[in-house]
Design goal:
Radius of gyration: 28 Å
Largest sheet: 8 strands, mixed
Strand content: 25-35%
Shape: elongated
Strand order of the largest sheet: 3-12-14-13-15-18-16-17
Mean pLDDT: 90
Structural class: alpha/beta
Low-confidence stretches: 1-32, 44-53
Length: 491
């Protein structure tokens, strides 16, 4: 028995799955019987410090997620298989379905609660043979690198040659009017702005010119458009991407030109406004075809009807291997499920991986998934999309109401030590945005953006451009946020 003023030591153990943690606390008993005092103080301590113990336990699980991903991760292997054995995956293509089957087979190996495919009818556009282009300036003929924009029609047999007019924005195009545009090729020379720190802001400002120039120029009688590639790099790789047509406007040819090619063409036009531009492309628009979203899930133990979606898009443009866009996002999201299974973490809420099909040129996968979720009356509390490349993780953007934003304030401190310093209101993602009207908290994963547009939609988007460690860090970052969502929900 202890006397007044002597120290009483209480030891107890807290268990959380695989982690045992021993805590010891010293108290002063001040003459009260030691055994009774110890019990009273221990009860009070536990009552007022439950949240701190919970946070400590959560931090240990998060640490374990990072360790497992970095030491035993599957992301790099999966991505290597997709890139080297399948490669480009334009929706509707045989390669896209090969990717669907590969992902389903890998998910089947994880012993999930369910794995299945969801039917999606998708556009089917084919590039055909490699494009060619040159411009004629007097006696000089200069080759330039181009690629057809996704969805463009082909040139006539033998190609197309016409005079060129250069513009830098839609205001300049409109000012030229039909008189100066009809029968000519419009060269939209609008560079991505270098002054933006966030390169996605620069892309967002410029991408509309890729999408709309063919429609606006076609309305003025142009026969084709050449659009400066959406990249901050100065190189000879053209960058493709989706463009749009209108049923009420004559469809005209559309291609992207490399940034070096754009600079050369602009310089030549300043010397000779009468130069001719020639290009040939073989693209074809085929009937819509059946494809699939790939879905796998771990069912929640306490709130199985509350669903957390995590995913990326399976399809990719055909110039490179679709490594960063968006093979990286797909394998990072799959790894979330593998990490939970490997570490025997039983989520309170259902975690569902979705590999969306047709993000690049239609968004049909995200649209069908959201429609089916609504018809089934599902409650998707949160959705995380990874579609900004497999670079160093920086944080997350959130598009939700004020109550959902409280989740961010409460839990970001656990993830900031891993370099996840960006926690901001913003964009979720083009596939998960279809869930917005269902009250879902939309979350975009943010990696470092500085190198992304060097490879985006270009032949340079290959597996050798991906860092294994950055990929594994990204997967663990997403898994950690999913864990917190599964434990505490979004309120």
């Amino acid at each position: 028995m202890l006397r007044s003023g002597e120290n009483s030591e209480v030891s107890f153990t807290i268990e959380k799955d695989w982690q045992l943690k021993q805590y010891s606390i010293r108290f002063f008993t001040f003459g009260i019987k030691s055994e009774l005092m110890n019990r009273l103080l221990l009860c009070l301590f536990l009552l007022f410090n439950t949240s701190s113990f919970s946070q400590s336990s959560d931090s240990l699980i998060i640490r374990k997620l990072f360790e497992e991903s970095l030491v035993n991760g599957s992301t790099y292997h999966w991505l290597g298989e997709i890139c080297s054995k399948i490669g480009p995956r334009v929706s509707g293509s045989p390669q896209a379905e090969m990717a669907v089957n590969y992902l389903k087979n890998e998910l089947d190996q994880l012993s999930l609660d369910s794995v299945y495919l969801q039917d999606v009818m998708v556009p089917h556009w084919v590039r055909g043979k490699k494009e060619s282009a040159y411009f004629i300036n007097g006696k000089e003929q200069k080759q330039v690198n181009i690629c057809a924009l996704g969805g463009s029609i082909a040139t006539p047999k033998g190609g197309l040659k016409a005079a060129v007019v250069e513009v830098h924005n839609f205001e300049e195009l409109k000012a030229l009017g039909r008189e100066k545009v009809q029968g000519k090729i419009v060269f939209m020379n609008h560079p991505m702005k270098l002054e933006f720190i966030n390169t996605f802001e620069a892309y967002g400002e410029a991408a509309g010119f890729r999408w709309s120039t063919a429609m606006k120029a076609g309305a003025l009688g142009a026969v084709g458009v050449v659009v400066r590639s959406m990249t901050l790099s100065m190189d000879d790789y053209p960058h493709t991407g989706a463009m749009g047509y209108s049923d009420t406007i004559q469809k005209i040819l559309a291609c992207a030109i490399s940034t070096l090619g754009a600079e050369a063409l602009s310089k030549a036009l300043k010397q000779n406004k009468d130069l001719q531009f020639y290009f040939q492309q073989f693209s074809e628009i085929l009937p819509d075809t059946l494809s699939h979203n790939v879905i796998g899930e771990i069912r929640g133990t306490e709130f199985p009807n509350e669903i957390i979606v995590v995913g990326g898009h399976v399809d990719a443009w055909d110039l490179g291997q679709g490594a960063h866009d968006d093979g990286a996002g797909v394998v990072e999201s799959m790894e979330v499920l593998r990490l939970f299974k490997r570490l025997n973490i039983h989520p309170k809420r259902t975690i569902r991986f979705v590999g969306f099909m047709n993000e690049e040129n239609g968004g049909k996968g995200g649209e069908v998934y959201a429609k089916q979720a609504k018809l089934r009356g599902e409650k998707t509390i949160a959705a995380i999309e990874s579609d900004e490349g497999g670079f160093t993780p920086r944080g997350f953007s959130f598009n939700g109401d004020s109550l959902q934003a409280e989740f961010v304030k409460k839990n970001k401190s656990l993830l900031m030590p891993y370099g996840l310093s960006k926690w901001e209101k913003g964009y979720g993602g083009s596939d998960i945005n279809h869930l917005e009207d269902q009250g879902t908290l939309l979350i975009g994963f943010i990696p470092d953006s500085q190198r992304y547009f060097e490879v985006h939609h270009a032949a340079t988007d290959t597996f050798d451009k991906v860092s294994r460690r950055e990929l594994e860090m990204s997967a663990a970052s997403i898994a950690s946020l999913v864990y917190m969502l599964s434990e505490y929900g979004v309120k």
